[in-house]
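Q: What would this chain look like folded?
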Amino acid sequence: MLQKIPLDHAGSSSLVVAPRTGFAGDEHDRWRRRALVLVSMIAAALLTALVFVVRAGGDAAANWPVNWELWSSDNGVLFQLLQDVAAGRVLDWSFSPQVYVFPELPVSALAFVLAGGDVYAYYLLVAAINNALLFGALLLVVRLLFPGARVTAHLARAAVAWLPLVILPLVGTAWMFSFHLAPTYYFGMYLVLLGAPALHLARSRRARRVIACAIALTAASNPLVLVFAVPALVLVGVLVAWRFGRRAIGRPAWWLGGVLGAAFVVRVVAFTGLQGTSPFTYVDLDLFRARLDGVWPHAADPPGNLILLAGLLAAVGCLVGAVLAGRLYWRRREPRHLVAVWYGLVPLVGLAGTIALLITHQYYLWPVLVAPMIFLLLAVPFRAAPWTLATGLVALVALVVTTSSFGDEGRYFGHRSAETRCLDDVLPVGHEIGYATFSDARRLSLTSERGIRFIPLKSSGVQATWLTNLDYLHADTGTFFYLNEVWGEPVIDKDLITRSFGAPDQVLGCGDRLAIWLYDDPAKLARITGHFHVRQR
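A: My prediction, written as C-alpha cells:
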C-alpha cells in the first residue's frame, strides 16, 4: 500500500504513506474526508464573510461593499429578478450578452433565500458562497492532479492558491479585487477558468459528464469565458498533437467538442431570448479605441496599483511557466505539466483574444491580473504548502486587524445613499413608482425603506432594455421622473417630458441638479399611461 507519489510540478517525489487511490478506503475514512472538505468550504465561506464585514465600514474608498456592491446598477440584477419572483410579477427579463443564468442565478437564489430577501445580507452571502465554490474548484483540480496525497495535503495546497481571493480585497480598493465576490460580473467565467482541467483529469465517465454539463451551462451563460479558454486550449492541443500525434487529442477533442456544441445549443435555444443585445455589439472599433484609455482599473491607493502591477508580472510569469511546463511535457507525458501549460497560457493569451475581437474592457481583466497569482500559487509544492498557508493566514489576520472597522458596520448594513434617503422622505404617500435612467433606477431602489421602484428609461425617453424586466414599463404607471444631471447617463429629456405629459405638478429637490418631477393630475397621469402602453387593470 506504499507508493512513490510525485509531489510537485517539477517532478520531484518522496516516499509517503497514502492509499493508492487517494480518497478510496473504508466507509469511515470516506465520510471523514468528505467532512473535512465540507468543513473547509464552510471555513472559506466564513472567512470571506469576515473579510466582507471588515471592509463594510471606514472611508468611502475602502468600503467596497457599498461603493461596489450597493452602488453598482449591474450587481443588483439578480436580486431584483428574485424580488420579482417572490412578488409574483411577470418575468420578462432582458440581460446583457452575459445572461448570468448559471451558476450565478442558483447562487443568488440560495443567498436570497438564506437572507430572507434582505439586500445587505444577500450580497454578503453571495460573496461567501462564491469564494467557497472557487475553493472547491481548486481543491477538485488538486485532488485529481495528485490522487495519492492525503486529503489534508490537498486542502492545504488548494487553500494556498485560494488565499489571494480573500487577501486582495483587504489590500486595495480597485474593484478588480472583488469581482469574484459580486453576484454578476463573470463569476461563472472565473469558476470555469479555475476548474476546467477537472474535465480532462476526471477518470469516471459520470464525473466527466457532470463537469461537462456544468461547463456547457456556464459557457452558454458567460460566452466571454470562451475567449479566454479556447485559444489556450487550441495551443495545448497543438502541443499534444505535435509531440504525440493527432490521435492523442482525439478523445479530449471529442469531449471539448461536445461541451462547446452543448453550450451553443443551450445558448441559442434557451438563452438568446434573455440577452438585451447580441455579443457582437461589443465588437466595435470606435468603442474599442475609446475603452483603451480606461483599460487599466485604477485603484484609489498606491498599494492597490502596486498589486495590479504585481498581477501583470504574475501573468508574464505564468506565460514563462507555460513554456517551461511545455518543455517538461515534451519529455514526459505528465498530465500536471499539461494543466500547467493551460493555466499559464490563459491570462495573456486570453487577453490577446479580447484584443483580437476588439472587446477589451477593464471588467474583463480579472483573469489577467488576479488569476495569475492563483495559478502560480498552485505550483507551491506539498512540502512547502503548510508553511506558505500559515504565512498567508498570518498576513490575513494582520490585515484584518489593521483594516478592521467593526465599529462602522452601519456604513454598510442599513446603508442608504443620500439620494435614496431623500426619495424615501420627500415623496408623498402613493408615489412609490417612478422613472429614472438605468444607472439610477436600481441603485436608488434596492435600499429604499419604502419600496420605491423605478422603471428605467433612456435619455431619449424610450424604454431601457439592458439588465431589466421589460414588463415594468407596461405593468405600472409611474407618477414621477427622477432627473439626475450630476453624473451617470445623460438625463431624461425634460422637453420631451413636458411636451408629452405637461409641466410637473410639483418639483421636489434632492440636491443640486437632482430633481423629482411629480405628477398628480389625473389627465397627465392618463397621458403617461397611454404613452407607455400601461396595461389597464
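The chain has a mean pLDDT of 88.
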